[in-house]
Predict the structure.
Amino acid sequence: MNLKVERSSACKLSDPVHYLDPNASDAVAAQIRRYLPGAPDTDDPILIVCIGTDRSTGDALGPLVGTRIEELQIPDIVVYGTLEHPVHAVNLTDTLMEIRTLHPGRFTIAVDACLGRQKNIGNICVAGGPLLPGAGVNKRLEAVGQMNITGLVNVSGFMEYSVLQSTRLNLVIRIADVIGLGLQKALLTHKRPGILSRFLPGGL
């Protein structure tokens, strides 16, 4: 859980996309493509590390996205962090060590939930650079990824753990659906240019 995303540069590098926007998944896909490697190699997988736990509704965004991407079976994509096998504070270091061993130097997208202002609940932010999981709850966890995607699921400022527990699951699922579909569109068009261009505003 990255609780300080609104106070970082994450939402300043690209326009936040609200999950209720009719073209939300297209807009998220277009932003994701801005940060993907320039020359795709179909034999070079892209990693998606989805951080969070299914023991807290607010923090379940990452595992929900990971499960959705795994179900979509996107070619040349490796997913870490699902509802069945979540990646969280306890196992993050071991997971990153495994990634460095099995997939050295691979481009990695980090996905996590965040808290912020009431008016921004439901926003999805895509940004270049690593994610700093646990920053808002004073946990020093290793940075993850070359780009990150965060979904703002509830308000910050007090009793964050209680806020996470009381976050509506419906909201988290709907944000996860938009992020998952956006990733699918972006990654398929990146690996196979033209295959989904009809879904993206203005084509490719």
